[in-house]
Amino acid sequence: MNSITSAARSTSTHGNRVAYLVVAAGMSAALHIWKLPPALPELQKEMGLSLVESGFLLSLVQLAGMTLGLLMGLFAEKIGLRRCVVVGLALLGAASALGTVVHDKNALLLFRALEGCGFLMVTLPGPALIRRLVESSHLSRIMGLWGTYMPIGTVIILLAGSWILSVSNWRMLWLLLAGVSFLMLAAVVRWIPSDPPRAAVQPADKQKNSAMAIIKTTLASGNVWLVALSFGAYSGQWTAVIGFLPSIYVAAGISGTTAGALTAIVAGANAVGNVAAGRLLHRGVRPKVLLCTGFAVMALGALYAFGLNPSATGKFIAVLLFSGVGGLVPTTLFLLAIKLAPSVRTTSTSIGWLQQCSALGQFSGPPAVAWVVTVAGGWQWTWVATGACALAGIGMALLLGRKT
């Protein structure tokens, strides 16, 4: 009996450790999303990008997620979660490497869209793959780490990317990140267990497990819609503020390296919030409390930072709280998406719909803020756009609290 128990514990521990590699794969994918902000001033000069065009360049990487998230979730379910991650990493590496040879902004936009497809294929299966690898008692904690894949990836690329750009150019940065993707691909193939063989489906269950039936079941769930739209409300404002932060600092006369470091600190605070959310959920704090707290502080932080024209230190602290306390939101929503999925078969499509709404927020957030800034002639009304997202998030969190 003791030997059986020890073997089970060993298997569980191995699964938990391998799950960290899934988180690392997500972080490596996030590097490609956030490699653009530190390089944006250089790209604007080289390719003559306007502020609105820059906003679309920031957000176009989310085009695949915005249009294909649900279908990609179904695709991941059909071909296997691990296999989907492998294909996504390969696509990220290839698109980033090919992007180094372009000299036209339209071609750069195309490769950014392809990187968006690769990013989606890596990150969309992540939560379901983690669920398959770890024990349920450890799920909330490891999902707290999964929620950090974007902010930690952001920190790494803002710091390392700013340094690389200070000694080289954006093409070298793109090429190095292609190499990172290919190395991560090799690690996933080596250490993450292969997808289990698909169980035979009885004729009576074929209709129930068909692609159309899975999609219909997913979209018929009100809980899935609330979780997904809440994520869109969060991601739109966070992406807009963090994405333009280096440009805001540079416009204020701060050097590119310092601007990247300050933005990295702000993004790193978001990772702390994600980990804290995982621990608080594990201890029984209600998701509604975490969601309302995160959205409320984001609204107040943006109002103070942009609307009240504080000192440089005050603005930095406000944006730090905006990102840090806002980090309570994504981990909570990822866990709710897993737990509120209509069935195990719809876990990937539920996460896919969440990613699709998240991508819609990330796609629309930066151009919307850029438009507000252009019309207002400054950043002082930024809080109106971000505050509207925060209020919508609080409303949906209250509805989720009633349903759950």
From TrEMBL:
Any matching Pfam family: MFS_1
Signal peptide: none
Stretches that traverse the bilayer: 18-36, 56-76, 83-103, 109-130, 142-166, 172-192, 213-236, 248-277, 289-310, 316-338, 359-377, 383-401
InterPro entries: MFS, MFS_dom, MFS_trans_sf
GO cellular component: plasma membrane
Subcellular location: Cell membrane
Record's bilayer topology term: Multi-pass membrane protein
Main subcellular localisation: membrane
Keywords carried by this UniProt record: Cell membrane, Membrane, Transmembrane, Transmembrane helix, Transport
GO molecular function, one term: transmembrane transporter activity
Domain Major facilitator superfamily (MFS) profile: residue ranges: 18-404
Top-level taxon of origin: Bacteria
CDD domains membership: MFS
PANTHER family: BLR6921 PROTEIN (PTHR42718:SF46), MAJOR FACILITATOR SUPERFAMILY MULTIDRUG TRANSPORTER MFSC (PTHR42718)
Name of protein: Cyanate permease
The organism of origin for this protein: Eoetvoesiella caeni
